[in-house]
Amino acid sequence: MARRFSTAGLATAQCRSSMPAISRAMPYEPDNIACWFIDSDYNGESFFVRQAYFLGQNDPYKSLKTSLKAEIDLEAWESLNSDTSVAFAKPSTGRIAVKVINHLGDEVMKVYRV
Fold first, then answer.
1. Residue/partner pairs of 16-25 with CB below 8 Å, 24 or more apart
2. In total, how many domains does the chain have?
3. What angle do CA 70, 71, 75 make, to 5 degrees?
4. What values do phi and psi take at 21, rounded to 5?
5. For residue 65, is it within any domain?
6. Domain range for residue 23?
7. pLDDT tens digits, residue range 28-84?
8. Are the beta carbons of 14 and 110 closer than 8 angstroms?
């Protein structure tokens, strides 16, 4: 069965509880998440980015385009600018890991059993 993951509620709530001092200074809402990644078959040792998403304030597309000094396919970008993952199969390890990074570079990782 294919599964999806959404930052709504899960990743943002985890950031709030894992980084309370930072959360008071900068609440974790989708606009405050710079990027988030999923390891959809987490082995407990190494985090492998299997899906990557870039949210962000202002215009992250423009920032990335400027940084890369290249044209970016708008349709491809739109698939990466999401707070909901694409579907993925149940992991053989029974775990996924989600890493969320804010605009200050602070990160948190949470492992979920599925």
1. 18/108, 18/110, 19/106, 19/108, 22/102, 22/104, 22/106
2. 1
3. 140
4. -65, -40
5. yes
6. 10-113
7. 566 778 888 999 999 999 999 999 888 866 676 777 777 777 777 878 777 888 888
8. yes
Verdict on whether the full-model pTM lies above 0.85: no
- From the CA atom positions of the chain, what is the Rg in Å? 14
Q: With b meaning 16 or more CB within 10 Å and e meaning fewer, what string describes 64-77?
A: beeeeeeeeeeeee
